[in-house]
Amino acid sequence: MTTLRILTLNCWGIPIPVVCKNRCDRIEAIGDEISKRDYHLVILEEVWLSSDYKILCEKICPVLPHAHYFYSGMLGTGCCVFSKFPIGETMYFHFSLNGFAHKVWHADWYAGKGVGLCKMVIDGLHINLYSSHIHAEYNRANDEYLSHRIAQCFEMSQFIKQTSGTCDLVILAGDLNMLPSDLGYRVILTNGNLQDCWTDKEKTTSDEAGNTCELPDNSYTSAEDTKVNPLGKRIDYILYRANQGVKVFIKEASVTMGCIPGKHFHYSDHEALEAVLRIEKSSDVVSPLEDDDHLESERNQHLLEAIEFIDIGMEQSKFNGMFFQFGFLLLFILLFLLSQTEAGGDPMIFYILLFVKLGLTLVLAFCFWTGVMVTRTDANNFLGIKLNIANVLKNSKVKIQ
Amino acid sequence: MTTLRILTLNCWGIPIPVVCKNRCDRIEAIGDEISKRDYHLVILEEVWLSSDYKILCEKICPVLPHAHYFYSGMLGTGCCVFSKFPIGETMYFHFSLNGFAHKVWHADWYAGKGVGLCKMVIDGLHINLYSSHIHAEYNRANDEYLSHRIAQCFEMSQFIKQTSGTCDLVILAGDLNMLPSDLGYRVILTNGNLQDCWTDKEKTTSDEAGNTCELPDNSYTSAEDTKVNPLGKRIDYILYRANQGVKVFIKEASVTMGCIPGKHFHYSDHEALEAVLRIEKSSDVVSPLEDDDHLESERNQHLLEAIEFIDIGMEQSKFNGMFFQFGFLLLFILLFLLSQTEAGGDPMIFYILLFVKLGLTLVLAFCFWTGVMVTRTDANNFLGIKLNIANVLKNSKVKIQ
User: Fold this and answer.
1) ipTM of the complex as predicted
2) How far is B359 from chain A (nearest CA, A)?
3) Which of A31, A109, B59, B217 is the most exposed place for a label (fewest CB within 10 A)?
4) 3-class SS string, B13-80
């Protein structure tokens, strides 16, 4: 019998002080607090700076000596893992789609989003620990990233399914940026054959809702957030699958961390989620999720729905492509006309004109890059994912209505 | 007992007539020829155009009714699979590194290179078929892409290793752009636990060298190619692994296709490779590649060597980053000086100056994009891969000298 205490926290480590307050104090406090608690596995997201990761290592590694950061993409992945047990082989799967390059202020596109895998052996149990952080939802009422987010959920579930056949236990922890009622969450659960620690828990020391983000008592929750989600929302998860011959009991799952002692602010804009798993090996146990026709039928329904969003995403990519190509043409004409404009000897107007032309030419280049490269890549990647979903459906043993 | 006849061919389907001759005729001929032969699985690379894939489907699908194209990246992957048996679930892993964005004329960066997986069940055997096309080697004497190519080989081997635990047979077919003596090939074989059909064959109907590219009698081989490789080179492979309880005999492996009948040119600048595998299920067979300390020690040596190239790649990315940032600064100053230049009333000079300034500003934007985004992403991805390699080595049961 093995007991695993697991924690996951989105650390909100964006290195822009105006956007992300008290980062340095909070990272120090997160490290201090985790090092005082008795976890076996800690999975963190939004650790964007190497220097922050270094601070966390210094604080946490004396108690959890094995650490891994998933380096990838221009801004990194933000995802890292701390473990009491040696980390085995590791790997990282990049999501094909990750938002829009032209939404620079949302920055997700520039991060190397994906799903990381750390294999480990704990008490003879082969464990596949997955860490991920799905693209953010910026506007629930008009979620222009929904197709991208659903594509990520499918790719994550497919990666987990294809890489977890030989392990005993699968754990996926992280900020999935999806509510339990959302399609993406249902795709991850049903196509990845995963269960939710929160719903399967025997007890909790926190609120029964399990909300981890935009909680009304969190110091970083704005009045506007509270208006939309008065009680916050559940978007951070610890999911699991017990494979053949393994039984898992979720002894406890709780929302934790809260306010930093002695400070007027919280550890992060998210709360952490912790779970205590008791794992037993027993040769007569069949995974409850395998060969379940009802579950497969449910998955098929979710995947059919997902295809609709993939189609929308594909059309959106093509539309964006045309939009930026048109923008390119328009700017080209505008620049041509501007080039004929004389400053009339006024050096002030001369320099203003100069910088306007330089700026417009850079926007022109951006339009070309986005209109020709990025949106075309997105459309192709959507098509690839659509075919992968279609192949899951085609191979279902359950008839699709 | 199951017999599988497999063919792989790089179709050389680049849609630029000056670079790639007789494409339309060759694609038609490839489709016709394959449809006349009795293969079970056909894996093609460099099918860049959807219209070419459609032609191949029309010709091949009457005999191999199941087809899958791996859509990904701006230019696609070029990789597709035709099968006599239904194709099960599919998935695509994008390589983190794929050459240089600034080498536009080599174009690899703009293709969605990676490794595709098609799962299938043939006579009760669970088969994982992988299709890939590694980044080209443009100049063997001074291979600036070597680090990228080795990174791809490692990622491919890791993806295959992590996704193939539950199948009976692994097949990897494609143009690996690596000689059998190259480090990348050895990394794929030893870290992916794969064997080479060519070296394990019982017989061949072709030359014993197994060369598939730059063959002296190929109509597209240049005199210069022949000077470097008088007998051509072996870079197309069918690799395999028989997992626990499965025995594979390579009854035959041959280089095939040659010249198109009635034409003066070959099917492609590569020859095809075909192999006949006889597969037996036998519960007492242990995979010859599992738990082999000698093989693991050999793998470790290759991975240590690979880390050296990953380090070189990381440094190269950082250097390129500085180069393009410096270029950005220089161009900014040049543009500023040019903006002070007057055309002197001559409309000809005015328009020349205008286009020079426009062109330089676009190069400026490219320098910014490459210097800040692309090279930084590359350096991060190299670091991620380095840690993944280090974790394989750290978890080796064989002591590393």
Assistant:
1) 0.95
2) 9
3) B217
4) CCCCCCCCCCHHHHHHHHHHHHHHCCCCEEEEECCCCHHHHHHHHHHHCCCCCEEEECCCCCCCCCCE
Look up residue B92 and give its two tokens. 């695509």
Ordered strands of the A246-256 beta sheet: A66-69, A80-83, A41-45, A2-10, A272-281, A246-256
| Phi-psi region at B291: left, alpha or beta (left = phi > 0; alpha = psi -120 to 50) | left
Residue pointed to by tokens 């629930």: A140
Long-range contacts of A98-101 (CB under 8 A, 24+ apart): A98/A135, A98/A148, A98/A152, A99/A135, A99/A145, A99/A148, A100/A144, A100/A145, A100/A320, A100/A374, A101/A369, A101/A370, A101/A374
Measured between alpha carbons, how far is residue B75 from residues A374, A379, A381, B101 in Å?
Answer: 11, 11, 11, 13
Q: How confident is the model at residue A139 (pLDDT cuts 50, 70, 90)?
A: confident
Residue A9 β-bridge partners: A44
Total-model pTM? 0.96
Centroid of chain to Cα B321: 26
Give the single-character DSSP code of A136.
P
> How do the residues of chain A divide into helix, strand and coil, expressed in percent and rounded to 5?
40, 20, 40
Task: Please state, in angstroms and rounded to a whole number, the distance separating the CA atoms of residues B65 and A107.
Answer: 43
Question: Rounded to an integer, what distance in angstroms lies between the CA atom of residue B276 and that of residue B351?
Answer: 64
Examine the pLDDT at B319 and tell me if it is beyond 90.
yes
- Is B362 within 8 Å of A358 when comparing Cβ atoms? no
A83, A18, A87, A75: which is closest to A47 by C-alpha?
A75
What's the rounded Cα separation, in Å, for the pair B373 and A110? 8
Give the separation between CA B367 and CA B251, rounded to whole angstroms. 53
Tokens matching residue B295: 């093989």
Tally A–B CB contacts below 8 A. Answer: 138
How far, CA to CA in Å, does B252 sit from each of A41, B232, B236? 50, 21, 16
Which has the higher per-residue pLDDT, A57 or B355?
A57
Distance of CA A60 to the CA centre of its chain: 23
* Residues of chain B found within 8 Å of residue A362, distances taken between Cβ atoms: 361, 364-365, 368
B264 annotated active-site: no
pLDDT tens string A167-222: 999 999 999 999 999 999 999 999 999 999 999 999 999 988 999 999 999 999 99
Chain A environment of B48 (Cβ under 8 Å): none
Tell me which residue in B162, B354, B384 faces A163 most closely, judged by beta carbons: B162
Say yes or no: B281 contacts chain A, CB-CB below 8 A: no
Q: What would the DSSP string read from start to end of B96-164? A: S--S-TT-TTT-GGGS--EEEEEEEEETTEEEEEEEEEPPP-S-GGG-TTHHHHHHHHHHHHHHHHHH-
Q: Based on C-alpha coordinates, what's the Rg of chain A?
A: 23
DSSP class of residue A233 equals: B
Q: What is the largest CA-CA distance in chain A?
A: 90
Interface test with A, best of B49, B94, B97, B162 (most A CBs within 10 A): B162
Burial label, A57 (beta-carbon count in 10 A; 0-12, 13-18, 19+): middle
Burial group, residue B9, by CB count within 10 angstroms (0-12, 13-18, 19+): buried
**Whole-number Cα distances in Å, A79 to A87, A99, A207, B148:** 15, 18, 26, 24
